[in-house]
Amino acid sequence: MTDTPRQKKAGKRVVRLSRISTKTGDDGTTALGDGTRLPKHHPRIAAYGTIDELSSMLGMAIAQGLADGFPELLRGIQNDLFDLGSDLCVPGEMGDKLRITLDYTERLDALLDEHNADLEPLDSFCLPGGTLGSAWMHVGRTVCRRAEREVSSLIEEAPDGTVNAEVLRYLNRLSDLLFVLGRVLNDGGKADIPWVPGRNQA
Predict the structure, then answer these.
(1) What's the number of domains the chain is made of?
(2) Owning domain of residue 48
(3) Exposed end of the chain (fewer CB within 10 Å): N or C?
(4) Would 68 be classed as within a structural domain?
(5) pLDDT tens digits, residue range 122-174?
(6) pLDDT confidence bin for 39, thresholds 50/70/90
(7) Distance between CA atoms of 183 and 116, rounded to whole angstroms?
(8) Contacts of 123 (CB under 8 A, 6+ apart)
(9) Contact (Cβ atoms closer than 8 angstroms) between residue 167 and residue 87
């Protein structure tokens, strides 16, 4: 595989995947980016596995068809999520490895401000659903919250400096953005389904 001009300019090494089945995980372990092997149920593996799950959820949302602009926006987030997974896969301090920085989170802040500006005001929590696209955003939001919980737990358990805290901030902001995008895809909030407290009480 040859690096593209854009990749060369960015100074990033292209990942080569010449062989998919290595059989090295048959013993229930998997390798981190630094060569360390951990059990597949380790909290670090669970955290970046859930981030991978979230990316797949967004892929499903894109595949089912969304309004113009949304596929490109979500693919950008999917690319970020691979960066997050790569960050978590290589424990250690900031250095020459790919690390999530404040710029990633600030980009989400800008998207939040942009897409929230014209939404109908909320006077209740809303139920996941409405349009298919909105429902997928809510599925993504809940998976993102799970990833956030797992990364938070990993930060608490891991030695200082081996988990980049910016990953946690990014996920926190992303879950908010997915909620907002769900409302955008519900006709700007007009098709939101409000929560009615105690609706089914006798």
Answers:
(1) 1
(2) 38-90+100-116+128-189
(3) C
(4) yes
(5) 888 999 999 999 999 999 999 999 999 999 999 998 877 788 999 999 999 99
(6) low
(7) 9
(8) 194
(9) yes
Nearest to 172 by CA among 145, 142, 138, 136: 145
- Of 120, 112, 110, 114, give the one whose Cα is nearest residue 187: 120
How far, rounded to the nearest angstrom, does the alpha carbon of residue 127 sit from its chain's CA centroid? 21
The CATH number of residue 148's host domain is 1.20.1200.10
Count CA within 13 A, CB hemisphere, residue 127: 8
Per the listing, tokens 């938070």 go with 152
Burial of residue 73, with CB atoms counted within 10 A of its CB: 0-12 exposed, 13-18 middle, 19 or more buried: middle
CA atoms within 13 A on the CB side of 147: 28
Q: Which residue has 């799970």 as its token pair? A: 146
Q: What is the DSSP letter of 33?
A: T
- Residue 75: φ, ψ to 5°: -65, -35
